[in-house]
Amino acid sequence: MVSTIYIAKNVYGGDGLGRLGDGRVAFVPGAFKGEQVKAEIVEEKRGYVKTRLVEVVEPSPERIGVLPLPQPGMVYANISRRGELEAKGAQLAEIFDRARIRVNIKGPMAEVSSTGLNYRNKVVYHFAKDKGKWLLGYMSEPDHMVVDVLDDPLARPEINAALPEIRRKVMMLLTQGASSVRKEVERKGNLTIRWSKSSGVKWWVGAAQPDVVMKEISCGKAFEVPADGFWQVNPVMGEALVREVVLEYGKLGDAVDNILDLYCGVGVFGLCCNPKKLVGVESGRRAVEFACKNAAAQGFANARFFAQEVARNLRKLRIDGKTAVILDPPRGGLEKGVPQFLAKSPAPCIMYVSCDPATLVRDLRQMGGNYEVCTVKWFDLFPRTARFETLAILRRRS
């Protein structure tokens, strides 16, 4: 059934939200706030429906294109950057309002791109065979079909320049040589390409070899990262985020000179802050090895990193009134028990970096009333997609 729907807003994830004539909420992918659209119901749930956009009857003044999207995940490909940023800012504000957390929200921070394209320094493509032809590209949702990528609108220009030759070599691996070799390549299932200014373009099929290392720069400091290790995929905006953390730490003055960096990765946030003493905790042993190497290479003698799961080692963590805490957990947020532990700590400031505002507000609420959320800054690290990054600044109540 096709219905005419007015789109009231875009929810987190990118879908347009409207209502059917019977009052049920309708989610319309590809539709934008203020539009009148025709959409076909594809799935009915209790209280809401999922739909497929059929026609844009009255477009938003911010619409700049029509379907189909240039690649999976680019939910804001057909709207202006202004419209995209307004939608994301409104989503973040609504998430905090629903959580009843009153806070000063600032952003987008350090916006530098007018197009929101060609920023990714890492891409992962999948293989699939369709009608006897190999495809190499992103996997679409929800059908899990591989969309062939010849030129990637989100990838760095350096990656796109190298992509034809990389594709040629991967296709040779998939189609030529011994059958056992071809099957092994197919089993690995994906291709990863990374770029950095210091290392150039590197690529591999399946898991990266242990000796493949990327060299990166942040705050003028040199970092080494294992090829399969985490580094922000948007290097320009990622640097802006690190510098904001450094700025907030600097505001604390001499009263705070230690940092406890939880979920520290290769040590970027803590090392860039340059405290007198730094303790980092990260579950990934390989990341911790590189955090130690980075600290040593930078001459930071008072840095210690530990390969541990944060939640299982809370009793070992030492926080006093001169210690600031940095949090940068994965998308699932803080582990069970960690927010409650931090709520009882004497840390004067907590800086929480999050790529999922829903888990962020969940964790903030679990910290209770001992900390005030002073400011939330947001960064559009992932233009044209549904995601963005936030930095929440918490101060202990006196």
Task: Explain what the structure shows.
With 398 residues, this protein is α/β, with parallel strands linked by helices. It has 3 domains: 2-63, Nucleic acid-binding proteins (OB fold (Dihydrolipoamide Acetyltransferase, E2P), Beta Barrel); 99-115 and 234-396, Rossmann fold, CATH 3.40.50; 122-212, no CATH class. 25% of the residues lie in helices and 32% in strands. The strands form 4 sheets. The protein has an 8-stranded mixed sheet with strand order 6-19-20-18-17-14-15-16, sandwiched between helices. The protein has a 5-stranded mixed β-barrel with strand order 1-2-3-5-4. A hairpin with a 6-residue loop joins strand 8 (133-139) and strand 9 (146-148). The longest helix has 19 residues, at 157-175. It is globular, with a radius of gyration of 23 Å. It starts with a strand and ends with a strand.
What's the gyration radius in Å? 23 Å
* Proportion of residues in β-strands: 25-35%
CATH architecture of the largest domain: 3-Layer(aba) Sandwich
Task: Quote the CATH topology of the largest domain.
Answer: Rossmann fold
Give average pLDDT, whole number: 95
Structural domains: how many: 3
Please describe the biggest sheet, giving its number of strands, its sense, and whether it closes into a barrel.
8 strands, mixed
Beginning-to-end CA distance, first to last residue? 58 Å
The SSE order reads EEEEEHEEEEHHEEEEHEHEHEEHEHEE
Number of helices: 8
CATH superfamily of the largest domain: Vaccinia Virus protein VP39
Shape: globular
User: Structural class of the helix and strand makeup?
Assistant: alpha/beta
* Sheet with the most strands: spatial strand order: 6-19-20-18-17-14-15-16
